Amino acid sequence: MSSAIATLFLSSLVLFSVVSALEVDFTYHRFPQMTNVLRQLNREYPEMTKLYSVGKSVQGRDLWVMLVTRDPDDEPLLKPNIKYIANMHGNEPVGRELMLHLLQHLLSNYGSDSYVTWLLDNTRIHIMPSMNPDGFEVAQEGECSGVQGRGNANNVDLNRNFPDYFAGPSKAPTQPETRAVMDWIKKTQFVLSGNFHGGALVASYPFDNIPANSPRNFRIVGSPSQTPDDDVFRHLAEVYSFNHKNMYVGVTCRDGSPPFPNGTTNGAAWYSLIGGMQDYNYVWASCMEITLEISCCKYPRHHLLPQFWTDNKNAILQYLGEVHRGVWGQVKDSNNNPISNATVKVMGRDFGFKTTDRGEYWRVLRPGTYTLQVEARGYDSLEIPVKVTKGVTIQNITLNPQTGTYHEPHNEQPAYQGYPSISPSQQENSGTSLRGLWPTYRNLLKQPKEAVIFPRLSYGVNYRQQPSHPLLNYNIHG
Ligand SMILES: *[C@@H]1O[C@H](CO)[C@@H](O)[C@H](O)[C@H]1NC(C)=O
Ligand SMILES: *[C@@H]1O[C@H](CO)[C@@H](O)[C@H](O)[C@H]1NC(C)=O
Ligand SMILES: *[C@@H]1O[C@H](CO)[C@@H](O)[C@H](O)[C@H]1NC(C)=O
C-alpha cells in the first residue's frame, strides 16, 4: 500500500518535471547557460519563437536574438518589428538577465494575459540579451562603477563605434558586434527599439551627439541636441520612466549629480558622445531607439535581480506597446503594386523614412494633424494630410506615374547648415538600400500578401478592446 502510494507519488513527480515549464532563475547566466535558456525556451515554444544569431563576437560567441511573436514564420503586412538590445557594455548586465525573464514572462503568459496576448499577436519582438558577450565574461559581479568588460574583446566601446551623423565614421575600426547589428537592422525594418545599460537610472533619447561645429568645450553644459521628433522621443522615454517603479522620481545615483526631471533626458543634455547606437538607429535605420539606464550599480549582486525585474517589468512591457502608435501604411502604384524605397517624410521632421520591399512604412507619432510627403523615383510626389489619434492611423498611399520632372528627394537627411552632412551611402560603403531586404534570415523573400493585416483580429477591434490596458498610463504612480 505505502509502496504503491510512493510509486504514485514518484511517478507524478516525474510527470510534473517533464511537463513543467522552464523557470529562469535569478542569477547571472554565463554564455553557455544563457544559450541553454534560449534554446530551451525555443524548444518549449516552437510556435511562438525563433532563435537566430546575427553574427559572432570577436571571440566567436553568437550574438543571439530571440524573436517572440505568434507564428514567427508568418509575416503579415505591416506587423511591426521591435527590438530590445541589452548588455552592449559587458559590465552592465542587469538588462541581459531581465531579457531572459521577459522572454519567459511573454511566453508563459500568452493566451492568459490579455495584454501579452495582444502584444504577441500583433508585434514581432526581437530580443538580443547580449550584444557584448565577450565583455560580460570578464566583468566582475559587484563592480558598480568599473570599466572591466565595458568594451568588447578588442577593448572598443561598442556604443562609440557606430557611424555618427554629426562626426562621421568611427575612429576605431567597426567591430564585429557593431557590424552585425548594423547588418541586422539593415535587413529588418525595426520601428522601435530600447537599449539597456546600467550605471544610472534614466531613460535617455537622441541625439547623443551635437553638431560638429558647436564647440564642445564652450557649449552650455546641459543644452540638449534635439531631433525633429523630440516630442515623440520625450514621450517614449516617459512611457518607460513613468511605468518604472521609481525612475520617474528622478533618482540621483551619485552625490552631487543633478536629478533627471521625470527620469528622462536628452542624451547630449546629459553628456554628448560620438558614435552611439541610438543616433544611428534614428538617422540611418528609420528606427526610434532610446537608451534605458536601469541600475545605479553597473553590475549589482545577483540577489538583487528579482527586485530589478519587479521594478522594470511594467515599463518593459508598456514600452513594447508603444510601437502601436502613429501612422502606418503601404505605398503602392496605381496597379496596386507595392513601391519599395519610397521616402515618407512627415512635414517639419526632415528625416525621411523609407518603405520596405513590400511598400510598408511606419512612423511613430503623437496624436495630431500632420502632412506626409511621399516621394519615389518614377512617380509624382504627393502630400497627404493625416490625422493621428491615440493608436495607429492606417494611411495607404497610391502614387501615380511621373508626369513632371523627377527631382531626387531633397534633404533626405536634414542638412544642418554649416555642418558636414554625411550621406548614408558614403557612410555605409554599400550599394544596398538602407531598408528593406525584407526580411531576413531565411534568405527567402515572401511574396507580398494581399490586403491582410493581422488576420486574427481586425485592426479597429484590436485597439478598442484595449481599455483595460491603456498603452500609456500616466496615472500609474498616482
Ligand atoms: C514631465 O512630464 C510631464 C508629463 O508628460 C510633462 O508635462 C512635463 O513637462 C515633464 N517635465 C519635464 C521637466 O520634462
Ligand atoms: C532609394 O532611393 C534613393 C533616393 O531616395 C536612391 O538614392 C537610392 O539609390 C535608392 N535605392 C534603391 C536600392 O533603389
Ligand atoms: C491599407 O492596405 C492594407 C494592405 O494592402 C489593407 O489591408 C487595408 O485594408 C488598407 N487600409 C485602408 C484604410 O485602406
Automatic annotation (TrEMBL):
<keyword id="KW-0645">Protease</keyword>
<keyword id="KW-0732">Signal</keyword>
<protein>
    <recommendedName>
        <fullName>Peptidase M14 domain-containing protein</fullName>
    </recommendedName>
</protein>
<keyword id="KW-0862">Zinc</keyword>
<dbReference type="InterPro" id="IPR057247">
    <property type="entry name" value="CARBOXYPEPT_ZN_2"/>
</dbReference>
<dbReference type="InterPro" id="IPR008969">
    <property type="entry name" value="CarboxyPept-like_regulatory"/>
</dbReference>
<keyword id="KW-0378">Hydrolase</keyword>
<feature type="signal peptide">
    <location>
        <begin position="1"/>
        <end position="21"/>
    </location>
</feature>
<dbReference type="InterPro" id="IPR050753">
    <property type="entry name" value="Peptidase_M14_domain"/>
</dbReference>
<feature type="compositionally biased region" description="Polar residues">
    <location>
        <begin position="420"/>
        <end position="433"/>
    </location>
</feature>
<feature type="region of interest" description="Disordered">
    <location>
        <begin position="404"/>
        <end position="433"/>
    </location>
</feature>
<dbReference type="InterPro" id="IPR000834">
    <property type="entry name" value="Peptidase_M14"/>
</dbReference>
<keyword id="KW-0121">Carboxypeptidase</keyword>
<dbReference type="Pfam" id="PF00246">
    <property type="entry name" value="Peptidase_M14"/>
</dbReference>
<keyword id="KW-0325">Glycoprotein</keyword>
<dbReference type="GO" id="GO:0016485">
    <property type="term" value="P:protein processing"/>
</dbReference>
<dbReference type="Pfam" id="PF13620">
    <property type="entry name" value="CarboxypepD_reg"/>
</dbReference>
<dbReference type="GO" id="GO:0008270">
    <property type="term" value="F:zinc ion binding"/>
</dbReference>
<keyword id="KW-0479">Metal-binding</keyword>
<dbReference type="GO" id="GO:0004181">
    <property type="term" value="F:metallocarboxypeptidase activity"/>
</dbReference>
<dbReference type="InterPro" id="IPR057246">
    <property type="entry name" value="CARBOXYPEPT_ZN_1"/>
</dbReference>
<comment type="similarity">
    <text>Belongs to the peptidase M14 family.</text>
</comment>
<dbReference type="GO" id="GO:0005615">
    <property type="term" value="C:extracellular space"/>
</dbReference>
<dbReference type="GO" id="GO:0006518">
    <property type="term" value="P:peptide metabolic process"/>
</dbReference>
<feature type="domain" description="Peptidase M14">
    <location>
        <begin position="27"/>
        <end position="323"/>
    </location>
</feature>
<feature type="active site" description="Proton donor/acceptor">
    <location>
        <position position="293"/>
    </location>
</feature>
